[in-house]
């Protein structure tokens, strides 16, 4: 005998299934995860504050597109240049936001982009120089409308 489902039973089951799919939970990101991501980049090297300028708005009404500019004091010559700029966040699902590789032909060590921020948090920029040293800056950003809520 074929199994028959009423329209009401079908809609109830479909609604329950959709609720399970649509339920969005923030990822369990932590400042410790950011420190682990930074450790993966710098290893055991010492990170010194300075030489890096991190520009972010102190208040962002929408975390979906927060403007970010990182610049580093460097002569950008073959002997002294910035090899990479890394940006990390403490509460995003993925703490390593962006890494940009540079060379002496870049002319100047400056990058601008927009990033997504899941919540009010601290953003850290680290510059890797050609002599193997690491320099950093950090900025706190208050986000009123969060982004990055889906799990990845």
Residue-averaged pLDDT: 87
Question: What is the CA–CA distance across the termini?
Answer: 44 Å
CATH fourth-tier homologous superfamily: SoxY domain
- Specify the CATH class: Mainly Beta
Count of domains: 1
Q: What is the beta-strand fraction?
A: 35-45%
Polypeptide structure, described:
This protein is of the alpha+beta class and 152 residues long. Helices cover 18% and strands 37% of the residues. The protein has two helices and nine strands; from the N terminus they run H-H-E-E-E-E-E-E-E-E-E. The strands form two sheets. Strands 1, 3, 5, 6, 8 and 9 form a six-stranded mixed sheet that branches. The relative contact order is 0.24.
Name a few traits of the molecule.
single chain, about 150 residues, alpha+beta, Immunoglobulin-like, three-stranded antiparallel sheet, elongated
């Amino acid at each position: 005998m074929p199994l028959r489902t009423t329209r009401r039973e079908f809609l109830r089951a479909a609604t329950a299934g959709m609720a399970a799919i649509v339920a969005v939970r923030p990822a369990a990101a932590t400042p410790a995860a950011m420190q682990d991501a930074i450790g993966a980049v710098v290893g055991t090297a010492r990170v010194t504050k300075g030489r890096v300028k991190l520009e972010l708005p102190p208040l962002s009404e929408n975390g979906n597109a927060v403007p970010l500019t990182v610049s580093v004091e460097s002569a950008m010559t073959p002997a002294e240049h910035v090899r990479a700029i890394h940006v990390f966040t403490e509460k995003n699902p993925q703490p390593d936001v962006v890494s940009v590789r540079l060379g002496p032909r870049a002319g100047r060590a400056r990058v601008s982009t927009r990033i997504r921020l899941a919540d009010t948090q601290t953003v850290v920029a680290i510059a890797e120089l050609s002599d193997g040293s690491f320099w950093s800056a950090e900025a706190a950003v208050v986000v009123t409308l969060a982004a990055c809520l889906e799990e990845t």
